[in-house]
Amino acid sequence: MPGKTIVVTSGKGGVGKTTSAANIGTALAMHGNKVCLIDADIGLRNLDVVMGLENRIVYDIVDVVENNCRLEQAMIRDKRYDGLYLLPAAQTRDKTSVTPFQMKELVDELKNEMDFVIIDSPAGIEQGFKNAISGADSAVIVTTPEISAVRDADRIIGLLEAEGLRDPEVIINRIRKDMVDRGDMMGIEDMIEILAIDLLGIVPEDEGIVVSTNKGEPIALNDKSKAGEAYRNIALRIMGEDLPMMKLESESFFSKFKKLVGLS
Amino acid sequence: MSSVFSFQAVSDGIVMNFRDGSTFGSIKKAVTLHASEASGFFTGVNLYLNLSGLELAYEQLEELMKIVRNYKKVNKIYFTARKIKEEKKVNINKSKAVIINRTLRSGQQIKNQNSVVIVGDVNPGAEVIAGGDIIVFGRLRGVVHAGAGGNQSSQVAALKLDPTQLRIASSIARSPDDSNDSSEMLPERAFMNEESIMVEKI
């Protein structure tokens, strides 16, 4: 049975597409799945850096479509999980180097080998986005509790529907319970009401993301991180498990106090 | 005679190019001689007289017209002023290296079949591919491929050698995953030692 292909997209930039793709892929591989991550952001590749695999790149996706190498040669095996692969984007080329048709062929070939193919989409709605969605049979939309991100997510849902990708699911990223409680940030219910799609997960704001990104180690590997737990839960939901949504904790007075005096 | 003009074949005839700096007297003499001796060469073709770079007085032009009328067998005679294609010099000045006077940033790529010298940094995400050596007067943090045509004696040198990936001929090396990133400049060079890539201080 061919694997599932999922595009991670958002419209707006900087909401956490690449971070989400890296962590979902890692968490899926953690459960023994064969996963291939595809970086569709040609010219502005990042997924390799977030995965800590940049120095292993010899061939990339453009080399594959231009027949400079075989697909297996371009796929980089992750340094932590044997079942996890990355197909990196080219950095010295642009989005027009690959057509949606070529992308679809590539993804179709990959999904026969893999349990999951996760495609990291670039920001925007132009050619790069069209390439990224062309091979996918389902979509995950990443958004943050900001009106601009939600607006863009809504636009993307419309575009996905037009392309025949129905019922996308949403990840709400960088949510802060304390701000929601104060009424300074949109709540989850408000956002779901606007977008009217299923919620795949909520990821709390976490400083650890910056650290893990810079180190090239997805936060899903970190047992202590709340965001890492959120991504592991998302992976389980993608695998078909019915998990309740994470309870968001606002920072307790005690933890705030510890931070204040520099204990944690 | 040949020092005054030269011939060049075009699709429908012959161009007569007058050499730069020829005096009208020498032109007159040479063309008169050529027309009387070799007019039969140009049977049925068009003759283009290329005056490019030549200044003729009215009388001189009239005189020249009279002379070229002696090319009786040509089809038509034109006066033109086209540019003379410079003949390719056989001894092309072979420069052994290109010099790049700037920092290469992510996504920028330099490809050259000779050696490449970069006066500046090579940032992560930038790529240098050279048939010969690669020398970086700055920090090398991107991907470099020296001896890309298979030359195993190529080397890579930098004031700070910290590449994402370093390739020489068909060998690949990468920095260790836990490399400590000191900002100290320490000139190093990388070269092939039998089957593996070695790095040493310069």
Question: How would you concisely characterize the structure shown here?
Answer:
The complex is a heterodimer of chains A (264) and B (202). Chain A has 264 residues and is α/β, with parallel strands linked by helices.
Provide a count of the helices of chain B: 2
**Beta-strand residue fraction of chain A:** 15-25%
- The oligomeric status of these chains comes to heterodimer
Report how far apart the termini of chain A are: 48 Å
Secondary structure: helix percent of chain A: 40-55%
Report low-confidence residues of chain A grouped into runs of 5 or more. Answer: none
| Overall spatial form of chain B | rod-shaped
- Mean pLDDT of chain A equals 92
Strand order in the sheet with the most strands of chain A: 3-4-2-5-1-6-7-8
The tally of strands of chain A reads 8
Judging from the principal axes of the Cα atoms, what is the shape of chain A? globular
According to CATH, what is the topology of chain A?
Rossmann fold
Number of domains of chain B: 2
In angstroms, what separates the terminal alpha carbons of chain B? Answer: 61 Å
Give the topology string of chain B: H per helix, E per strand: EEHEHEEEEEEEEEEEE
Radius of gyration of chain B: 30 Å
- Please report the total strand number of chain B as a whole number: 15
Structural class of chain B: mainly beta
By secondary-structure content and strand pairing, the structural class of chain A works out as alpha/beta
Radius of gyration of chain A: 18 Å
What is the element layout, followed by pairings?
The complex is a heterodimer of chains A (264) and B (202).
Chain A: E1 4-9, H1 17-30, E2 35-39, H2 47-50, H3 61-65, H4 71-74, E3 76-77, E4 84-87, H5 100-111, E5 116-120, H6 127-134, E6 138-143, H7 147-162, E7 169-175, H8 177-182, H9 188-195, E8 198-204, H10 208-215, H11 226-238, H12 253-260
Parallel strand pairs in A: 1-5, 1-6, 2-4, 2-5, 6-7, 7-8
Antiparallel strand pairs in A: 3-4
Helix pairs in contact in A: 1-11, 5-6
Chain B: E1 5-10, E2 13-18, H1 24-38, E3 46-50, H2 58-68, E4 77-80, E5 97-100, E6 109-112, E7 115-119, E8 127-130, E9 134-140, E10 143-146, E11 155-161, E12 165-168, E13 171-174, E14 188-193, E15 196-201
Parallel strand pairs in B: 2-3, 3-4, 5-7, 6-8, 7-9, 8-10, 9-11, 10-12
Antiparallel strand pairs in B: 1-2, 11-14, 12-13, 14-15
Helix pairs in contact in B: 1-2
